[in-house]
Write a structure and sequence with these properties.
This protein is α/β, with parallel strands linked by helices and about 260 residues long. The protein has helices spanning about 20-30, 40-55, 70-85, 110-135, 155-175, 195-205, 210-215, 230-240, 255-260; strands at about 10-15, 35-40, 60-65, 90, 140-145, 180-190, 250-255. Helices cover about 50% and strands about 15% of the residues.
Length: about 260
């Protein structure tokens, strides 16, 4: 078994499900001390249980927080440092999709809600974690963008705008903090079968969402949904010291979707 994370403290937002949970399981198997942040306490407890099944001796701190609340973000960063003394790696992952609609029909409040979580939440996390890592003289930040941050996504103005913003923040901060030994990069997942994607399919057709999903992936070169664990493997690599020289860039994991069009 790899031990890339022995003695390392890994902070993960959106750790209660989907990509955050998948990454947590992977780094826990490799020795990480985990701090898991999510708005859903029950989901956090579920992830912790799964972690301990894989790594019975893992140290896991759970923090219930809304990443769109700057004070809550400052608090989860402070709690992490107070508990473990450092932050080696940060998977800045929490996000939402929001409702689907044409831009002209997209509600202002809905737009702001998506941007507050997906963009402001990522910025707040970077703001407070990068300060810690700069003082340490090392660290790795991996933000969750999306193929929607590389190209447009129909009927998802808020999501596409927020994820394009994540890409910009990633590149900018990588340029700023590389000199301090800190790397900042982003992943751009395509259609990964997570609870969020399932919810999106149900918005399209609540009664036949599985069939909609089958049709949805046909344009993808691999003609299938990605698996959360596939993203977890990539996130773990990028969070590790092995990927320190990967900086200020965005890495798609989408079956080739973003390059086909």
């Amino acid at each position: 078994m790899n031990n890339r994370f022995d003695g390392k403290v890994v902070l993960i937002t959106g750790g209660g499900s989907g990509l955050g949970q998948a990454a947590a399981l992977q780094v826990a198997k490799e020795g990480a001390k985990l701090v898991l942040v999510d708005l859903n306490q029950a989901a956090l407890e579920e992830t912790k249980q799964k972690v301990l099944e894989l790594a019975p001796n893992a140290e896991v701190l759970l923090i219930t927080a809304n990443v769109a609340d700057e004070k809550a973000v400052e608090n989860y960063v402070n709690q992490t440092v107070e508990t473990f003394g450092k932050i080696d790696s940060f998977f800045n992952n929490a996000g939402i999709e929001g409702k689907q609609n044409l831009t002209e029909d997209f509600g202002i409040e809905e737009f702001q809600k998506v941007v507050n979580v997906n963009l402001n939440g990522v910025f707040y996390g970077m703001k407070y974690v990068l300060k810690v890592m700069k003082e340490q003289g090392y660290g790795s930040v991996v933000n969750t963008a999306s193929v929607g941050g590389i190209r447009g996504v129909g009927n998802q103005s808020g999501y596409a705008a927020s994820k394009h913003g994540v890409v910009g923040l990633t590149r900018n901060s990588g340029i700023e903090y590389g000199q301090y030994g800190v790397s900042v990069k982003a992943i751009a997942p395509g259609a990964i079968m997570t609870p969020m994607v399932e919810g999106s399919l149900k918005q399209m057709d609540p009664d036949n969402w599985e069939e909609v999903g089958k049709q949805f992936v046909q344009p993808n070169p691999m003609k299938r949904f990605g698996k959360p664990e596939e993203v977890g493997y990539l996130a773990a690599f990028l969070l590790s010291d092995q990927a320190n020289f990967i900086n200020a860039t965005v890495i798609p994991i989408d079956g080739g979707q973003s390059y086909k069009y």
